[in-house]
Amino acid sequence: MRKKIVAGNWKMNLTLGQAEQLINDILQAGLRLKDGQEVVMATPFPYLLKAKSLLKNTPGFYLGAQNSASEKSGAYTGEVSAEMLQSVGVDYVILGHSERREYFQESNATLAKKIDLALANGLKPIFCCGEPLEVRKAETQNEYVAKQLEESLYHLTEEQLKNVVIAYEPIWAIGTGLTASAAQAQDMHAFIRAQIAAKYGREAALRTSILYGGSAKPSNAEELFACPDVDGGLIGGASLVAADFLAIIQKLG
Ligand code: 13P
């Protein structure tokens, strides 16, 4: 069946020394993941190589990046391409995070290009979607998320979709301490799965891992992960604290 994944999105945090310490603390706990469970650590770019060397011998632990360029290569100062990420051993790349959409003007169309380049270079995109508070208040979150999926993912073949993970991150729950209730998360995850089923068929939908993100922490992870359509989490703040991240991983069951 589909994979259960806990992914840590470190965002723009930690020095190299702190990053090494965090990874070592997590690995030294000696967690044994069950079949079909994966952990991803999405570090800042400068730490990827080091993180790879630390993670590479631990089964089930994968390396993620937090972004990749929408162009293949060339004169794009400051950008990092999917090919570069692949060449340093990155497995997953977070694309379409709401912070990238808001502060760096990433559109659904730009994200479609990034998804294509990631897949072409053997990276698995963790594609983020999710609505702002005003959309939730207007109760139009389903339409909003459906459009994000349609414009960034639906050009993919069913075969390509196999390598895509979806993360639902309601913007009003990110870094706010305000978590979507388990019922709100389940409703949206079931809706996303139904959308995928309508486009790609039931089998493809059942195979797609859909993660929840937004103030997930040890105290609420169990209830969220128990929802039938929640296949794990994309964790921000709590992924920077080894004990919290480990506790969340253990809630995968
Ligand atoms: P927090 O867990 O800090 O709310 O962040 C969620 C997130 O944005 C993960 O990508």
TrEMBL record:
GO BP terms: gluconeogenesis; glyceraldehyde-3-phosphate biosynthetic process; glycerol catabolic process; glycolytic process
Database matches in InterPro entries: Aldolase_TIM, TIM_sf, TrioseP_Isoase_bac/euk, Triosephosphate_isomerase, Triosephosphate_isomerase_AS
Pathway(s) of this molecule: Carbohydrate degradation; glycolysis; D-glyceraldehyde 3-phosphate from glycerone phosphate: step 1/1; Carbohydrate biosynthesis; gluconeogenesis
Enzymatic reactions: D-glyceraldehyde 3-phosphate = dihydroxyacetone phosphate
Residues spanning the membrane: none
Binding site for substrate: 9-11, 175, 215, 236-237
Active site location: 97, 169
Superkingdom, taxonomy of origin: Bacteria
E.C. numbers: 5.3.1.1
Subcellular location: Cytoplasm
GO molecular function, one term: triose-phosphate isomerase activity
Gene3D superfamilies per record: Aldolase class I (3.20.20.70)
The UniProt record lists the keyword Cytoplasm: yes
Keywords: Cytoplasm, Gluconeogenesis, Glycolysis, Isomerase
Gene Ontology CC terms: cytosol
Quaternary structure, from the entry: Homodimer.
Family per similarity comment: Belongs to the triosephosphate isomerase family.
Main function: Involved in the gluconeogenesis. Catalyzes stereospecifically the conversion of dihydroxyacetone phosphate (DHAP) to D-glyceraldehyde-3-phosphate (G3P).
Entry protein name: Triosephosphate isomerase
